[in-house]
Design goal:
InterPro entries: DinB-like, DinB/YfiT-like. By secondary structure, the chain is mainly alpha-helical. It is built from seven helices and two strands; from the N terminus they run ααααααββα. Strand 1 (133-136) and strand 2 form a beta hairpin.
């Protein structure tokens, strides 16, 4: 995928995410069933992962992989979206949430700022797509290209999760 193609995919993914977040009231965002995360938790998690990934990719240190993609677009989509092979949010991760996504506007400010920063860094060449590898806690080493695909698919996975949580919203909240 070229930088312009990625930026188009990033813009579409960003807009889809914002449009979905705007559909929910603060009460709907904070609703939590007995064994699930709230929509606000999932949105905040997306922001946190985007922020950590952007910080990680801004680092110029790390080993260089012999290939451009260790996982690639299709494999990451399969792992994250199709089969959801990585674990869901853990108690530790939800404990780290601060409540930054309690309203659609609050989420949008955080999310858009990070996505615009990524877009700007890629478009300007400040963030280079190299074979440099950075370790993911579950997947191991991933190249910059893999991480960029990861961001898109990670968000998509949690958009599916948000839709599942939304199906459980009590009618009184709708």
């Amino acid at each position: 995928m070229t930088v312009p193609q990625y930026l188009a995919a990033l813009a579409a993914n960003t807009q889809t995410t914002i449009n979905l977040a705007r559909q929910y009231s603060p009460a709907e965002l904070s609703f939590r069933s007995a064994d699930d995360c709230s929509i606000a938790d999932l949105l905040e998690h997306i922001c946190l992962v985007d922020g950590r990934t952007l910080h990680l990719l801004s680092s110029q240190s790390g080993p260089v992989a012999p290939i451009k993609e260790i996982y690639g677009d299709k494999n990451l989509h399969r792992i994250l979206v199709d089969y959801k092979e990585l674990p869901r949010l853990t108690e530790l991760e939800t404990a780290a949430l601060t409540g930054l996504a309690t309203t659609p506007a609050a989420f949008e400010r955080c999310f858009l700022a990070q996505r615009q920063q990524l877009d700007s860094q890629l478009a300007s060449g400040q963030l280079l797509i190299t074979n440099q590898a950075h370790k993911h806690p579950y997947l191991g080493e991933m190249t910059v290209t893999d991480w960029l695909y990861y961001l898109l698919h990670h968000t998509t996975r949690h958009l599916h999760d948000i839709r599942e949580v939304a199906q459980q919203l009590p009618p009184a909240l709708n």
